[in-house]
């Protein structure tokens, strides 16, 4: 009987550990260079990394930047929210940058983000926006990208990107 209870306890413990571990995927809490915390990249001509920030510069002709997440087997329903901490030097112009998460490509305005010159944490509900799949690195489809689109000279500073199912600790 003791072995049975021990086996059940171990199974319950493992279930809880793996269930709780999947509630959050840290893409980056700080950008340290190529192939960091939970990402491969960044790639593209329009980024720099400085002081833990990923900096996208839309003034470069044909500006683009991509990241692939290290979890290649992530399904769209695995994480409901993206929590991104970001700022811009010219928020009005930066609103025109196209931000891609998986199959969704939208301007910051279309994501419901009103950029500021101060770092602000934004929560994007991927399910509500209609995320159907993440990128596929083997097909050159990024999980996250920034593209110049209609922006002219804005710089966007990304401090962190986290995928989660529990936004309670990120709400103000």
Structure description:
The protein is an alpha+beta fold and 172 residues long. Helices cover 16% and strands 35% of the residues. The protein has three helices and eleven strands. Strand 7 and strand 8 form a beta hairpin.
Number of DSSP strands?
Answer: 11
Q: Uncertain segments of ≥5 residues (pLDDT<50)?
A: 4-21
Please describe the biggest sheet, giving its number of strands, its sense, and whether it closes into a barrel: 6 strands, antiparallel
Please write the string of helix (H) and strand (E) elements: HEEEEEEHEEEHEE
Query: Tally the helices: what do you get?
Result: 3
What overall geometry do the principal axes of the alpha carbons give?
Answer: globular
Q: What's the gyration radius in Å?
A: 18 Å
Mean pLDDT: 89
Give helix % range. Answer: 10-25%
Strand content: 35-45%
Would you tell me the structural class of the helices and strands?
Answer: alpha+beta
Outline the secondary-structure elements.
Elements: H1 2-21, E1 24-28, E2 39-43, E3 47-50, E4 53-57, E5 64-69, E6 81-88, H2 91-94, E7 98-101, E8 104-107, E9 120-125, H3 126-129, E10 144-147, E11 155-164
Antiparallel strand pairs: 1-11, 2-5, 3-4, 4-11, 5-10, 6-9, 6-11, 7-8, 7-10
Short description:
With 172 residues, the protein is an alpha+beta fold. Helix content is 16%, strand content 35%.
List keywords for this structure.
16% helix; alpha+beta; 3 helices; 5-stranded antiparallel sheet
């Amino acid at each position: 009987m003791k072995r049975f209870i021990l086996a059940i306890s171990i199974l319950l413990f493992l279930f809880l550990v793996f269930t709780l571990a999947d509630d959050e995927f840290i893409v980056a809490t700080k950008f340290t260079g190529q192939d960091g915390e939970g990402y491969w990249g960044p790639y593209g001509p329009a980024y720099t990394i400085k002081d833990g920030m990923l900096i996208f510069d839309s003034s470069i002709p044909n500006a683009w930047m991509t990241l692939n997440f290290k979890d290649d087997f992530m399904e769209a329903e695995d994480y409901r929210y993206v929590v991104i901490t970001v700022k811009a030097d010219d928020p009005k112009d930066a609103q025109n940058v196209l931000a891609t998460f998986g199959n969704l490509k939208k301007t910051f305005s279309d994501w419901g983000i009103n950029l500021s010159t101060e770092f602000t944490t934004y929560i994007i509900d991927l399910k509500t926006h209609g995320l159907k799949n993440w990128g596929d690195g083997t097909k050159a489809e990024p999980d996250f990208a920034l593209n110049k689109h209609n922006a002219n000279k804005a710089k966007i500073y990304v401090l962190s990107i986290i995928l989660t199912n529990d936004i309670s600790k990120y709400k103000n």
